[in-house]
Amino acid sequence: MALVLILLMFFVAGLSNFLIYKFALDSQFNQLREKLMVVAQTAALLIDGDLLLQIPLTPDGINSPNYTIIAEKLKKIKEVNPPIKYVYAMVKTDKQGIWQFVADPESVTPEDKKRGITTYHGYNYDASRFPEMMKAFDGPAADKRLGIDEWGITLSGYAPIRDKNGNAVAMLGVDIMAEDVYNIQNKVHRRGIFVLMVGIIFSVSLGVLFSKTITHPIKNLVKGTRRIAVQDLQYRVEVKGPGEIRELARSFNKMAESLFEARSKMEDYFYHAIQSLVKILEAKDHYTRGHSERVAEYTEKIALRMGFPKGKVDIIKKVAQLHDIGKLSIQQTILNKTGKLTEEEWKIIQSHPIVGEDILKPIVFDQELLNLVRSHHERYDGKGYPDKLEGEEIDIFAQIVSVADAYDAMSSARAYRLAFNKEKVIEELQRNSGTQFNPKIVKVLLEILG
Prior knowledge:
CATH class of the largest domain: Mainly Alpha
Largest sheet: 7 strands, antiparallel
CATH superfamily of the largest domain: Hypothetical protein af1432
Mean pLDDT: 82
Strand content: 5-15%
Number of domains: 2
């Protein structure tokens, strides 16, 4: 829209500028035409039409006394009017539009002969090419545009030569060389095109710059909506554009802030509710009391040590508390069994990551967080459960929880065994590094324990 408006502005400016030049040129051109008509009419009055008709239209006609009289008068007309290049008289023939030269005192130069142009007494000329010349027998006339023929670029005026009875018997023409006028016209045309092109280039550049003040902040808003779409509710848009767009950006930022606050409240409510369920779970198995909170703390320390951002780690810590939420579906007799589990009971235990994911799906929309719950019992060597994932196929946070979960499990007393001492735990972690656990994560935990 900016480009269109600016183009219209420059088009109007360029057109008006061109029209002013054209008007001035046309005014000068019309004044020149009027002068030519006056000169032609005045000169025609000096020519005796009856005497002109007595000149024989043969090559020898130029030797007749009448031709000499007429030629002398035409020469004097040229002398009185220096701009005139050619002055001549013509009569009509039987052929439509074909006239004959009766008197032309201008001698043909060698240069003219080289160009293949010549004229002589009785020479036929196609006058139909020049509409205003064809009107010369009716009254004074002048070309409305520059004539271009074998003689060059000319502007001509015409007037009838009359006999003693007032009848138009011949035509007198006067030509001036108009190359300067022609060049001026071309210059005006070129200037008009130049002004238009400069206007277009300038307006395109200005339009692009002007449009960027609108499109750039809009792109920022689009970027902001995409960040919001991926749950980055802490992203804020910075806009320095027009007032309306800047106000839109403020509204966008307020919306993002409100969404962030609403999500934070919802997450707090959600985690409080889930923590109550975890406490119910731990009440079923007094051996695992406090286990979820400790695993969450170890997870937080490992993740921060590995360089993950604090905001992300805070969310992971809360979800880590829920990693065993699927055990709510398992009977207490199985959870607290002191003896060896049967194959069926072991399958029930192995189902708890899937059950935990199903419990959280309706309220947790981040697949990465759901993967943490589902995959925290996968093994680095691919022998874990429930999906037999291997190496980097396992979500990194699930791998962190796996190490933290194993560390706390070995450090705590269970129904089927006593707690390991710290040295034994470290030994087991090192022994299973690269098979059950990611070696990088084990190394980070050992650094923390150190």
